[in-house]
Amino acid sequence: MGGSGQLKKYVTQVVNDYFAPIRERRHQYEKDLDYVKDVLHDGNARANAIANQTLDEVREAMGMVY
Fold this sequence. Notes:
By secondary structure, the chain is mainly alpha-helical. It has helices spanning about 5-30, 35-60. The protein is elongated, with a radius of gyration of 23 Å.
């Protein structure tokens, strides 16, 4: 029996093991900031397109299309 100290070590190890591949992927992205900026730019453009379409639909539904 290890008690709460042993449980804490086990949980810490499990959490670290779970996040290890995510941390590694993050380090890879840190090396390619142009890629990260491109992903953010593309996502922003897609979000804007969806928002504009939604606003058009709302204006139409409210009879605010002049």
